[in-house]
Amino acid sequence: MSSKSNAVEDHLQSAVHLPNYWEILSKAGKRITDNKLRSAGKQYLTGGKSIMLSGGLPNQKPLPIKKIQFTMSDGHEISLSDKEVAHANSYGLSEGITELRDWLLGLHKLEHKPPQLTRKDHPEPFALTITNGITDGIRTCFHILLDEGDSVLMERETYSNTLTLLQLFAASPVAVNTDEDGINAKDLEAIMSSWPEVHPHSKRPRVMYITPACSNPTGYTWSEQNMVNVYKVCRKYDVIIIEDSAYYFLQFGERQRTFQSIDVDGRVIRLDTFSKTIGAGYRLGWISGPSTLTDRYVLSMSQYTAHPCVLSQIMINHILQYWGYETFNKQMIYTSEIYRNNAEILASALDKYLTGLATWSFPRGGMFMWLKINDIADTSVIMREASQAGVSLISGDFFVPEFKPTCYIRLSFSMADMEDIEQGIKIFADVIKAKKKECLCNGTQ
Q1: How far apart are CA 308 and CA 98, in angstroms?
Q2: Where are the strands (E) in 114-229, listed by range?
Q3: CA-CA distances (angstroms) from residue 372 to 14, 195, 293, 368, 412?
Q4: What is the reported pLDDT for 19?
Q5: What's residue 44's pLDDT?
Q6: Residue 77 class from Cβ within 10 Å (0-12 exposed, 13-18 middle, 19+ buried)?
Q7: Rounded to whole angstroms, how far apart are CA atoms 176 and 324?
Q8: 301: Cα within 13 Å, side-chain hemisphere
Q9: Which one of 31, 166, 228, 374 counts the least CB within 10 Å of its CB?
Q10: What's residue 383's pLDDT?
């Protein structure tokens, strides 16, 4: 992680302004109660000694899976014990396996050093719980924080699924001007200060959703100074920050500080995932932050998805315990270097074929490159015609509020090899040239 800048150092010395969590919670977030059946069975699930005549746990005898073993990329073999297999065949705790949660809590102490943990007198406890991945994490956060008609602050371009989830909750995105350093703090202040006058019939936003490290779709990574500036605006208007950190460990070079690492108050809910570093199909991640909110998250999860996948938790816990923190960090560096190499291959192909047709900047990490196509206002047509030519890419309208047409294209460098990237970008350039020629002939743009 990056060393502390003066702005961060000064900020970390500031007094705690504890958020008004109860006022920020949605009606559902306030109303939700414990799952009584799961609470009744918790003693058994946590290893307590009791004769089980209450819960509807499956009988292990007829279940088909009795042995689970897997081999890691370095040849190390891991075999689950009979007890672990039985656990994987049954239900689990809504908050996740304790040993896995403890390992991840140790990681946060090393990687982010959240003030809630480093300040002995902090009034709000820090907590961590396992999730079913980032998307489910966002959905559950929205459930406990958003009411119908609410507004959510976010970057100008953002994760497409977040926009869809806002529609599900009948909430509205408020896009704030964004550049490579992140959301413009002055524009954020202008939106918040003028809100009562501009939107007299709606509540001022109390939630901000952001992806400050290797954003999807832009690849932008926020500067530390801008993080502090935006955080100050959020504490002024008592805004909760949802920090989507799906691509945090894919940063190229030294990893940037996080909002959680400067969260003096306890207003950051951080979402992490194993999807980009261990495997997406395991559907496993974790949420961390103020316990008042993470506790509500667990209550919501217990009512909807019950608990994260037990087998995935056991397998990933074995991997992390085998690695330890030092090897985990080396593995993250190795992973990010693979993506950096792919990004360099893509950038070389763009220089060769798209110079003069588009503009772009090299990302600071992640999986994506964000291109502005010159003289074309709606890239959805480019996406369709590229697809017909055998190249898959995503037009920018997928990532903006109301899915309006844009001049941008998102390219991924995560999967394609050198030869495919070279061929794909050449075809992409030919599609753009053909479209420009058609526009000139028709007198349109």
Answers
A1: 13
A2: 126-131, 151-155, 172-176, 178-179, 182-183, 207-210
A3: 40, 31, 39, 13, 15
A4: 96
A5: 55
A6: exposed
A7: 40
A8: 26
A9: 31
A10: 94
